[in-house]
Input
Amino acid sequence: MSGAEFLLWMRGPGISFAALFFIAGVVLRLIEILMLGRTKNLAELRGSGSTAGMRTIATRFLPADANTFRRSLPTIVLGYLFHIGLFVVIFLLTPHIKLFQSVFHIGWPGLPTPVVDFFTVVALVSMLGLLWRRVSNRLLRFLSTGEDYLSWAVTFMPLLTGYLSYHHLLLPYSWMLGIHILSVALLLVIFPFTKLMHSFTLFIARYYNGAIAGEKGVQQ
Amino acid sequence: MTAIKAESRRPADETLGEALRSHGISRRGFLKFCATTASLMALPPAMIPVVASALEKARRPSVIWLSFQECTGCTESLTRSHATTIESLIFDHISLDYHHTLQAASGTAAEAAREAAMRDNHGQYLLIVDGSIPLGNPGYSTIAGVSNLDMLRETAEGAAGIIAIGTCAAYGGLPHAAPNPTGAVSVSEIITDKPIVNVPGCPPIPVVITGVLTHFLTFGTLPELDSIGRPMAFYGQNIHDRCYRRSFYDRGLFAETFDDEGARKGWCLYKLGCKGPVTYNACATTKWNNGTSFPIESGHPCLGCSEPDFWDMGGFYRTLSMPTGHFSTALGYGVAIGAAAGLASALLGRSERDKARSAHEKVSVDDLDKGGSS
Output
């Protein structure tokens, strides 16, 4: 199999199958969660649940208090850097925008590639920092499971292979681009059934917690 | 072709140097060609005199050119793309003993010329092939009643080396495109015991073939090849890396259509389907038509013609990063399957919860008291 054949297969059946698996998994998980339902609240409402829910979605972007912030400083700073880098790379690189455009028929302007390249390096270095913290901190190491390392690896690989293919390193571009798409396919397949699902459930969870607290009249 | 017509007036043992001088090529012009060729092939400057001296003394090698499932575009590219130059003279001064498009002889006489060349130069002649070989049915393509497969096997047997000219001979090319009705294959899929150099392109750049011939004449060997059999000197560079529009790609400035502002300003053609990033060829540096331009310079995306399966790369005008095939349909099926499975799972969960609720027996304080006293 040549690089061109491999790339063509990944761009065709390979990524289509992964996307089918991904979307089916995400929809399955979301329907399961949303259809769990809630026991009817018989108590008198002391505030608006939806307002508090929406507010909590926003307020949880900030650390709860100075002490928590100080204690988890590396996780918070590296976590933010990584997520911002990942967002820029996924949504503001022109080839990626063209991919979204082919599916959703809407496009938006991309950033110059050296800028995206910078954010890729930021994301990669932050991820390495987070992994180092996970293995070097006794408590975090104790709490970590295989799933945590798997989620890290399948997120790290698309960033790394994307960086290598953009810079034409290690392998000819068609091979590296094919491997990049393969790594994304792996991420998509694993995504719905691991903690990576937090990309979707994060906002549901924040809203739910905020809404319950709001209905009980908890002051924010 | 002059080589064949000139056979009668040029002694067979005339060296290339003598032949060039008789065509009025000066020593300075010849050395300039040697220097250019050496630099094109990434040879150190010290090799220029070696190239010059080897070419001076080179005897005309016998070359047999077989044309199978092809369009003659490769031959046109090599013989007509520019005015007479030293490259074309060198091409003229190989002893092209058989080329059914160019030779004057036809029919039995033509085949006799091929057989004579094979017999007289056994083990020493160069075999050049353009066009793919059909395996589906031998009758799809024949020459003088001989199938392409048989002719290739027979002629390759006594060849010193094989040069597969054009993407059809190198990788199957256009005839090999899906659904490949003739069962077309490349030379290297049939011949496995001879050195083969692939010179792909649709058509290939003329200077590449003269470069490979020069290498063969100078060193008596075939040049260093990449993983898919192409000379590294010409196919080691990526079109995207060498493209003069690369800075627009990096700045995020793209032509969105063929007639918008971006197209007029010469911005990057990536969004219009340019295959430059996955294509290895010398177009961006060597250029075409005596160095005039190359496709991207003329405002058209690279088709990736020197790569295997370029015809099936998901469409010439489809952006490289876009999925091919039925990606959106797959997403639609994904939503449907996910929704059905999610509903089934949620309903199953609810029925289990209801079952548990109905099976639940309430315990009163009296029951507890009874339990405590017993």
Notes: The beta strands of chain B are 62-67, 95-99, 125-130, 133-134, 142-143, 146-147, 159-165, 184-185, 196-199. The first strand of chain B starts at residue 62 and ends at 67. Chain B touches chain A through 50 residues (CB under 8 Å). The two ends of chain B are 116 Å apart (CA to CA).
